[in-house]
From TrEMBL:
This is D-glycero-beta-D-manno-heptose-7-phosphate kinase. The keyword Nucleotide-binding does not apply. The gene is rfaE1. Keywords: Kinase, Transferase. Signal peptide: none annotated. The keyword Ligase does not apply. The lineage of its organism: Bacteria, Pseudomonadati, Pseudomonadota, Betaproteobacteria, Burkholderiales.
Length: 309
């Protein structure tokens, strides 16, 4: 495998645009069951906030040694202020648009003895003006970067994703997309999309053999005019489809502790390695290794070049 491009990564500038969120963790101990209902009582001992969604992709890019600019929507609220502070602390260049009509997307997790007991989500669709301001900022930023990464969590920031892809392709900037849902025509013209196994099944139907998967993947790739399509398949590894055909790598993970944010790490690693000039499959091999490392950690986390080595 080609060595990880540590020196070249420092010169890379990547624009990450998409759904920004805050991952909030409350850690505690469980010693009894509530007398009010058959649920555990968690005595919270520690609280921690982490960047999630597109912000976690940018955080991973910086951890790998590259430069990241983050374009996203946040609300005029405490969670939005926390995202701004965490982005600054992570060394990410912030381009966060404040949308007064919608709250910052917040995922709050309650854990007892390192086991997740509950998740509470706070979210709403962004306002029309917020999306318009987001797209205007994208138009200013795309040409200043080596690659565009679109992190779609279906929260609304990428409601005009087709125009963003068109802007990037006009500027001859590659576009990597982590898709959501099954209506993949909206990603037409991107350079690569990276659906997971469930998302791919939703888009093309269930397959019963590797040949059937290849036929459907290559058909989808042609329909969307993609250079590459990567299906991340959890314990089955990753399968890349390009003009060269099918290339597969088995899963790297030795121990799976938490899959939260693993797709963000994979996307970030693909972006960094491709922007430095690595061939598609070499980039996939490094992304597979990075994903295997991060699922051994709790919550949304990052991977460094030292860990990959």
């Amino acid at each position: 495998m080609t060595p990880f491009p540590v020196q070249a990564a420092r010169r890379v500038k990547i624009l990450v645009a998409g759904d920004v969120m805050l991952d909030r963790y409350w850690f505690g101990e469980v010693e009894r069951i509530s007398p009010e209902a058959p649920v555990p009582v968690v005595r919270v001992a520690r609280r921690e906030d982490r960047l999630g969604g597109a912000a976690n992709v940018a955080r991973n890019i910086v951890a790998l040694g590259a430069q990241a600019t983050l374009l996203g929507l946040v609300g005029n609220d405490e969670a939005g202020e926390k995202v701004q502070a965490l982005v600054h602390d992570a060394g990410i260049r912030p381009c966060l648009v404040v949308d007064p009509q919608a709250p910052t997307t917040l995922k709050m997790r309650v854990l007892g003895r390192q086991q997740q007991l509950l998740r509470v989500d706070f979210e709403d669709s962004p306002g029309i003006q917020g999306v318009a301001d987001f797209d205007a900022r994208a138009r200013e930023l795309i040409g200043q970067h080596d690659i565009l990464v679109l992190s779609d969590y279906a929260k609304g920031a990428l409601s005009q994703v087709g125009s963003l892809i068109h802007m990037a392709r006009e500027a001859d900037i590659p576009v990597l997309v982590d898709p959501k849902g099954h209506l993949y025509q909206r990603y037409s013209g991107a350079t690569m999309i990276t659906p997971n196994r469930a998302e791919m099944q939703e888009a093309v139907g269930r397959w019963h053999s590797e040949q059937e998967l290849e036929d459907r993947a290559q058909k989808l790739r042609a329909e969307l005019n993609l250079e590459a399509l990567l299906v991340t398949r959890s314990e089955q590894g990753m399968t890349l489809f390009t003009d060269r055909g099918r290339q597969h790598t088995d899963a790297y993970a030795h121990e799976v502790f938490d899959v939260s944010g693993a797709g963000d790490t994979v996307l970030a690693t693909l972006a960094v390695t491709r922007a430095t000039g690595l061939p598609w499959f070499d980039a996939v091999l490094w992304a597979n290794r990075a994903g295997g490392v991060v699922v051994g950690k709790l919550g949304t986390s990052t991977v460094t070049p030292e860990e990959l080595a």
